[in-house]
Design a protein that fits this description.
four-stranded antiparallel sheet, alpha+beta
């Protein structure tokens, strides 16, 4: 919840699917399927530059919300380069 506004601002600057990559979709889906979110954030200085939204699946392993949508995107601004 602490990064919801930054998350949604990043979605607007990205090429990812706007509906299924939005914070509201992810947080609601986690509550509906009663799964703990696992979210990896990347920052460049103080600016949010990437979000990898996942859930805790069986056995505590991270997984995408694959059965709830057809889009499992890493959220990053168009043209953002990641390394490492």
């Amino acid at each position: 919840d602490a990064v919801a506004n930054e998350w949604d601002s990043l979605v607007v600057m990205s090429d990812c699917n706007r509906a299924f990559s939005a914070y509201a979709w992810f947080s609601t889906a986690c509550r509906c399927i009663e799964r703990k979110p696992i979210v990896i954030l990347a920052r460049r200085g103080n600016r949010l530059s990437g979000v990898l939204p996942m859930i805790e699946a069986e056995g505590g392993k991270p997984a995408f919300l694959t059965y709830l949508n057809d889009y499992n995107d890493v959220i990053a601004a168009t043209g953002e380069v990641a390394a490492g």
